[in-house]
């Protein structure tokens, strides 16, 4: 995971990475507007980023500048404002946005703690993606929302090894739906993004044109899928035990 984070950091520091982040931020903003009614994050909401979300989390938060790593950690996360993770990834501090490394199946937060979770460059590189989604389910509030970005198996970007979208295993829509269902998450909205080929990412005007044309003409062939999911609370509840059967002794009458 640390190699994947280095790849992502190097990519986003380049001109193609900056333009790619700009295009993807535009799509994320349509799901969670910075302000306004609907699904816009409200003041005081707790937002957690899993994977490499530093280019995107500032849409809804003011980033800080802390980082660290816990022993044996494999997943990078960032948290907003009053729920920032400290350097030892064990407590929560009331300042800025911190980033650190944690185990993907043992997130250092209490259950029902976050209003929203953003996942970018996370699920495709996770060793146990189902456990990662279940961990996110646990720390989300009952009305919490998950915004997930994953590479499209049929897109250009899944095969670009020099970008973070070309790392790990890409997904098809059916695979994503199955994984979300197994984690008791229900997809409510989905869309595509990054329709330009990776080799053209450095060109701002070309990126804008490809994004508009691809979204209108070839919506299933974007480089990534963006999915908003909510907790399926009832599916996550343990089933009530079946009522015990009361055995009544039967009398056998023999003809006299």
TrEMBL record:
**InterPro entries for this protein:** Methyltransf_11 (IPR013216), SAM-dependent_MTases_sf (IPR029063)
All residue ranges annotated as the Methyltransferase type domain in the record: 100-147
Q: Which BP terms does GO give this entry?
A: methylation
Q: Which N-terminal residues, if any, form the signal peptide? A: none
What keywords does the record list, in alphabetical order? Answer: Methyltransferase, Transferase
Q: Which GO terms describe its molecular function?
A: methyltransferase activity
Q: What is this protein called?
A: Methyltransferase domain-containing protein
